Amino acid sequence: MAVVFAACSGVDYDLRTASELYRDARYEAVQAWITQLRREYSQMDATQRAKFHYLSGMTAYRLAQREEALHELALAAHGARVSPQALGSEQVALLYRTLEELTTRSPTASSR
User: What is the pTM of this model?
Assistant: First the structure.
């Protein structure tokens, strides 16, 4: 049980650090943390996964990586439905606004 708790607290710390970097607009640094966090994905609970996908997607969006952003934000939206406490109301609003922008301006969306 202690090992699981230690793993979760490590993921929480990493997510918090990535979130702070995102807040400070240090998007390349966030991507480095996200890359490391992917290795811990199987240890994340539903709430942590929603936060992970949100940070990953919004960072990709800020770095003009539209397809990656769309994919990650779709996963974040699913995670927010599964675990409603994972994201704050402002984050959820931004998530859906960004998803709408990505789907209405995406080349794959316009070709359907």
Answer: 0.85
